[in-house]
Amino acid sequence: MALILVTGAAGFIGSSVSRALLARGDSVIGVDNLNAYYDVTLKEARLKHLTADKAFSFRKLDIADRDNMLKLVEEFPAISGIIHLAAQAGVRHSLTDPYIYVTSNVMGQTALLELARRLKGLTHFVYASSSSVYGGNTKLPFSVDDPVEQPNSLYAATKRAGELFGFTYAHLYGIPATGLRFFTVYGPWGRPDMAAFIFTRQIIAGEPIKLFNRGEMWRDFTYIDDIVEGVVRVLDRPPVDERKIGGAPPHRLYNLGNHRSEKLTDFIAEIEQALQRKAKVTLEPMQPGDVARTYADIEASRRDLGFEPSTPISIGIPKFVDWYKDYYGV
Ligand SMILES: NC(=O)c1ccc[n+]([C@@H]2O[C@H](COP(=O)([O-])OP(=O)(O)OC[C@H]3O[C@@H](n4cnc5c(N)ncnc54)[C@H](O)[C@@H]3O)[C@@H](O)[C@H]2O)c1
Questions:
Q1: What are phi and psi of 156, to 5 degrees?
Q2: I want to staple 85 with a disulfide (CB 3.0 to 4.6 A). Which of 14, 44, 125, 136 is the partner?
Q3: Neighbours of 216 (CB within 10 A)
C-alpha cells in the first residue's frame, strides 16, 4: 500500500485526486493552508469527505513554511509519492498580489523539492504546472516541445519557474519528477474563480456575464475525472533516468487537456441548456495577462501515459451544473 503526500488537498484538483487514491487503497497525507483566496467553507466541505476515511491524514500547513514542511520527513518517512498541487492559482489575481505567487509557487516548489530529496523511498515527484506557460505562443495546438519563453502573467512565470526547478532537482539528485500542464479544469467541486462557476452563478442570479476579448476566446476545457485519471496514470509511471545511455535526467512534462478548443460562447450555451435559462452578456476588451486561445496537443500524454480524455463539455457541463444546484440548494 503506497503512502502519497498530496499538497493542495482541500483544493479542487487535490481533493479529487486524493479521493481517487483512497478509493484504490493508497494512504494519503493531505497538506493545505486553507487560505481565503476563495470561499473557505468550500475547501472545508471537500476536506470533510476525505477525513471520513481512516487512510487520510491532514496537516494544515503553508507549503512555503520550509521548516515545518521538512518535519513531514520525520513524521512520515515512508512517503513513496508526492503529488504537489498546492499553489496560488489564477491569472488575474497575479496582477494585484504578485508576492503571494512567488511565496506559494516558487518558494513552495523549492520546499517540496527539498522535502522530496530527503525521502529515501520516494519513487516520483508529480507537480502541477499550467497551460498558461504557453503565454503568447501562436502555434496551435500547444505542444510540450514548443518554446515557452513568453509568459503573459506572473502566475505563468512562476509555473514555468517550477518546471525549471523540477528539472534541476532531477538533474542534481536524480529525483524522478513530472510536471503537468493542466488545461482549464472544470467539474463538480470546482473553483469559484473559474468560468464554469462564475457563469453558472451569474446566469442563476440574472447578472450579466462579462465576455472578455468581445467573446473571441477559446479554451481547452478539461473535465475533472479525465484530469484525475491522468494524474494517477502519471504517478504510476515515473520517468526513467536516461543519462547513462546519453539521454535526459528523469524529468518529463505533459499536457493534460481535452484536445478540443471550445469557443467560450459555446461553453456558455451548454450552461444555458443545463440551467434552462438564458445568459445576459456584455462584451468587454481583452484583460491584461490573459490569452485568447488554449489548445492542448496530447500526443505525448497518449503515447507515454495512455491518457485518453473522454468527456466533452456536453457531458461535463450538465454534471457540473447538477452538482452546483445540489451544493448550493438552488
Ligand atoms: N484548475 C485549473 O484549471 C488549473 C489549470 C492549470 C493549472 N492548475 C494548477 O493545478 C493546481 C491545483 O489547482 P486547483 O484548481 O485545484 O486550485 P485550488 O486553488 O482549488 O487548489 C489549490 C489549493 O492549494 C492551497 N494552497 C495555496 N497556497 C498554499 C500554500 N502556500 N500552502 C498550502 N496550501 C496552499 C489552497 O488553499 C487550495 O486549497 C495548482 O497548482 C494550479 O496552479 C489548475
A1: -60, -40
A2: 14
A3: 14
Asked whether 216 and 292 are in contact (CB, 8 A), the reply is: yes
pLDDT at 31: 98
**25-38 average pLDDT score:** 98
| Run of H or E residues at 178 | strand 177-182
- Residue to probe by mutation, ligand 1, list 7, 12, 82, most atoms within 8 Å of CB: 12
If you measure from the C-alpha of residue 72 to the centroid of ligand 1, how many angstroms do you get, rounded to a whole number?
20
- Count the residues in the chain: 330
Q: Are 150 and 137 in contact (CB under 8 A)?
A: yes
Q: Distance between CA atoms of 262 and 297, rounded to whole angstroms?
A: 14
pLDDT digits (tens, 9 = 90+) for 216-236: 999 999 999 999 999 999 999
| Rounded distance from Cα 105 to ligand 1 centre (Å) | 10
- Cβ–ligand 1 contact at 87 (below 6 Å): yes
Strand pairing report for 185-186 and 262-263? unpaired
Number of DSSP helices (H) and strands (E) in the chain, helices first: 11, 13
pTM above 0.90, yes or no: yes
Helix (H, G, I), strand (E, B) or coil at 49: helix
161, pLDDT greater than 90: yes
Structure confidence at residue 1 as a pLDDT band (50, 70, 90)? confident
Q: Give yes or no for residue 35 CB within 6 A of ligand 1.
A: yes
Amino acid making up residue 82: I
Q: Residue 93: CB within 6 Å of ligand 1?
A: no
> Which amino acid would we find at residue 66?
R
| Segment 163-174, tens digit of pLDDT | 999 999 999 999
